[in-house]
Write a structure and sequence with these properties.
single chain; 4 helices
């Protein structure tokens, strides 16, 4: 009898902890969305499927930052607005700096030389090119969070809109983020300033009888 009571109490405690953890994640997300700084970055996207979480738009957001002074593993990136209305990566660091800038922990930061192996000259030996490559300046490539979940019915239309936008000249997709206290979450994707969710909803409604 006591064993059953203990098992029941433990089950309730485990469930309570799981609910608290889920509630904390939701609260944290909503807090960033509500109070975070809005950031826009150019992106490309395609539409995969997660059997556990459903349809989502998977954006590819990579920004480069030249002139890096270190080849150490870094985890934080500084975002600054550009003159074109989008944002850019201004610096990277092992830790967030207290300079008043918008420092976030992106999905990943990769430090490499500016010259790629594909830049090797046709008549250049590998030894000479490796020497030239190692002498080239370092550059950081920053990868941002990339999953925007959508309504199951809207995802196919959204995927088509994104493909057309990223392949057409003069158009492109922009990932909209909210950033606060080192965290960044994706909240929308825009095509020419319009929400892809709204565009997909309009396209879906037009197909209805």
């Amino acid at each position: 009898m006591k064993v059953n009571i203990i098992k029941a109490v433990l089950s309730v405690l485990v469930l309570a902890v799981q609910c608290m953890a889920l509630g904390w994640l939701i609260w944290r997300y909503e807090r960033i969305v509500r109070f975070g700084t809005e950031v826009r970055l150019r992106c490309e996207a395609y539409d995969p499927y997660d059997p556990l979480r459903g349809r989502y738009l998977h954006t590819t957001v990579r920004e480069t930052c030249p002139g890096i002074a270190t080849d150490k593993v870094v985890a934080y990136a500084k975002l600054e607005p550009s003159t074109n209305g989008l944002w850019r990566i201004a610096a990277v660091s092992e830790n967030p700096q207290s300079d008043g800038g918008l420092w976030i922990k992106p999905k990943g930061v990769n430090i490499e030389h500016a010259l790629k192996w594909s830049d090797k000259g046709k008549d250049e030996s590998w030894k000479d090119f490796e020497k030239r490559r190692n002498a080239s300046p370092l550059m950081a490539t920053v990868t941002m969070p990339d999953q925007l979940f959508l309504n199951e019915r809207l995802a196919p239309a959204a995927e088509k809109i994104l493909r057309e936008a990223t392949s057409a000249k003069g158009k492109g997709a922009v990932a909209v983020y909210r950033a606060k206290n080192g965290d960044a979450v994706i909240t929308d994707i825009e095509i020419d300033g319009k929400s892809v969710t709204s565009l997909a909803r309009d396209a879906f409604l037009k197909r209805q009888p």
